[in-house]
Amino acid sequence: MTETSGVRRVAIAGVGIAKRFGHVQALSNATVSVRAGEVVALFGDNGAGKSTFLKILLGIYRPDAGQVVIAGKAAALHSIRDAQVLGVDCVHQDLALAPDLSVVDAMFIGHELISRGLKGRLGHLARSRMTEQADQALRELSIKLPSLKIQIRDLSGGQRQAVAVARAVMWSDTAVLMDEPTAALGALQSEIVCDLTQTVAARGLGVLVVSHDLPRVLKVADRVIILWRGVTALDEPAAGLTVPDVVTVMVGAQKQAS
Amino acid sequence: MTTATQSTAAQPSGDPDVRAIAEHSPVLRWLGASGTWVLLLDITLILFFGLVSAHHVFWSSQNFQALALEASAGLLLALGMSMLLGAGLFDLSVGANLVLSSVAGAEVMQHIAGPDGTSNVMLAIVAGLLVCLAVGLVYGFVNGFIIEILHVNSLITTLGTLGIGSGIALLITNGADISGLPTQIQSGFAFRGIADVPLPALLALAVAGVLWYVLRYTRYGLRTLAIGSSLPSAERAGLRVRQHRISLAMLCGLLAGLAGFVSLADFSSTTVNGHTNDALGAITAVVIGGTLLEGGRVRILGTVWGAVLAIVLTGGLVILGAQSFYQLILVGAVLIFAVALDRFNFKRRESR
Q1: A123, A133, B75, B118: least buried by Cβ within 10 Å?
Q2: Domain extents for chain B?
Q3: Domain that holds residue A4
Q4: Is B293 on the interface with A (CB under 8 A)?
Q5: Do both A3 and A75 map to the same domain?
Q6: Claim to verify: residue A163 and residue A220 sit in the same structural domain
Q7: Which of A100, A116, A172 to mutate to test the interface with B (most CBs of B within 10 A)?
Q8: Is any Cβ of chain A less than 8 angstroms from the Cβ of B28?
Q9: Per residue, what are the HEC states of chain B?
Q10: Cβ atoms of B331 and B310 closer than 8 Å
């Protein structure tokens, strides 16, 4: 890909993506690229194709045309597991963590640590090692919890989302995608999660945030990409953009060349 | 751990995000679990029936042995059901699976041991056991395959295979039970025990112990609960949900096959018409014990107490000379009470 000759390598990108569902052309020629260490905000009105794009980057859908690039290399994704193997994980707006699991177990589900030796053959969990690593991962992001043994159910919405972010960071070494991470949160909790995006990017990961929370996300993003009817309508540094600028492009009043 | 805990103390107020409920104390959690109340109810009933029965015959070791043996097959079914419910699936076909497995096992035993059940006894029993397990396993796989690959709801799937399985069993036997099995299946297994506990009951308790360990300490158990707790999050975490749930259906089927063998050993004959309510009994025992119908929480110990409750009531009422039909009414009432208590605890917790 041509993007490799930049300041930093491409963490994750979808180039010229098209996807059709029956009679609906969800994406026709959309390009979104996130470099390592960068927070990119992906905006768009309802139906602009943001969710579809995210699902393609995660391997949940396969694109009709175009190319997914992960860590600078073309990637053919067949399932969410393929994306995970390449170091990409996602934070969802809700239902992200199983409410009945403890914080530790929820952070490790799908990546459980297993004891060594005979116990390990039985699939015995190495819970003390898991707890240590989870504690460290949470502290690195300055997330405070009363205990790692309590169930996800007993956490506040902001804490749950913070744990989900920590979980995603723990299992990605390339990029973290966030799908409306603040949609279910209060004002202060949203600030905390938005600040986390920068902490995560500072660790060298690419961060792609899909959101309707324009003012907050605009503040933490390095670059803004706007989808309009399945096409990339804008791709500019966040510094020069205001909320009204973004809204104008989002609703298609001022469509730019794609 | 300690660092995570002390951070709450360091920030008494101000940070609104450090306000989650602290971990409950073990004693409170024990008292809050419906399984605890069922255990206490079991003990109370055993005391009561013992006191009021003539010569305290309810407390005799013969009575306990008989009850333990009677409880074994039902407990095995309930344990399989616990695992399935843990992942959010039902199995209404466990009774039919038990019958079909035992019929197949009995056919094979009779074929090898002859009509009077005296030749090649050891081989016949082992072959019969293996056939019971194999049929149970395949039955479970068929259930799992229909649920996960054909995407049919588990209630509907197992309602269907309940009819199919019992129909096949009745066709094989022409509706009449197969008897004349080797007597050693009773004398060597069902009626034998260690310290007055019948072997089938020990077997069922051992299975309970293994499943308890699996749920609490292993990856398989954790994934089972994760799937039951939130299917979308399990899928997003990259778990192979379909394979996992098929394996659970097979486990439940395997245990139903084992229960089929236990039932053969208990009666030295098949019991093709005696298991129509087994699935409901198993679900009742599991739910009374505190396992969530919606999945995500399994209480193996509670399942054991729930299975004991049904048997203690049946046995106690028989010894009192009361109609055993009262057992149905009492167990039904306890079921509703247990779930209502659970809902109450749950709501109180959510609203805090």
Answers
A1: B118
A2: 60-276
A3: 1-87+173-258
A4: no
A5: yes
A6: no
A7: A100
A8: no
A9: CHHHHHHHHHCCCCCCCCCCCCCCCHHHHHHHCHHHHHHHHHHHHHHHHHHHCHHHHHHCHHHHHHHHHHHHHHHHHHHHHHHHHHCCCCCCCHHHHHHHHHHHHHHHHHHHHCCCCCCCHHHHHHHHHHHHHHHHHHHHHHHHHHHHCCCCCHHHHHHHHHHHHHHHHHHHHCCCCCCCCCCHHHHHHHCCEECCEEHHHHHHHHHHHHHHHHHHHEHHHHHHHHHHHCHHHHHHCCCCHHHHHHHHHHHHHHHHHHHHHHHHHHHCCCCCCCCCCHHHHHHHHHHHCCCCCCCCCCCHHHHHHHHHHHHHHHHHHHHHCCCCHHHHHHHHHHHHHHHHHHHHHHHHHHHC
A10: yes
Same domain membership, residue A197 and residue A226: yes
Predicted confidence (pLDDT) per residue in A67-119, tens digit = 999 998 999 999 889 999 999 999 987 767 999 999 999 999 999 999 998 88
Does the beta carbon of B7 lie under 8 angstroms from any beta carbon of chain A?
A: yes
Number of folded domains in chain A? 2
Residues A5 and A43 in one domain: yes
Residue closest to B342 by CA, chosen among B300, B307, B293, B301? B293
pLDDT digits (tens, 9 = 90+) for B27-69: 777 777 778 888 999 999 999 999 988 888 889 988 999 999 9
Residue B218's Cβ-side half-sphere holds a number of Cα atoms within 13 Å equal to 15
How far is the alpha carbon of B82 from chain A, nearest alpha carbon, in Å?
16
Residue bearing tokens 């259930």: B143
Sort out which chain B residues have CB atoms less than 8 A from A159's CB and list them.
Answer: 17, 20
Q: Do A199 and A83 belong to one domain?
A: yes
* pTM of this prediction exceeds 0.80: yes
Interface test with B, best of A61, A104, A109 (most B CBs within 10 A): A109
Non-local (6+) Cβ contacts of B167 within 8 A are none
Together in a domain, A78 and A108: no
Residues in chain B: 352
Same domain for A1 and A69, yes or no, is: yes
In a domain, A39, yes or no: yes
Bridge partners (DSSP) of residue B303 are none
Is A4 contained in some domain?
A: yes
Cβ–Cβ below 8 Å for B20 and A138: no
B252-to-A74, B95, B200, B210, B248 alpha-carbon distances in Å: 43, 11, 17, 14, 6
The residue written with tokens 């995660």 in the block is: A58
Q: Do the Cβ atoms of A123 and B226 come within 8 Å?
A: no
In CATH, what number is assigned to the domain containing residue A6? Answer: 3.40.50.300
Residues A163 and A191 both lie in one domain: no
Distance separating the N- and C-terminal Cα atoms of chain A? 18
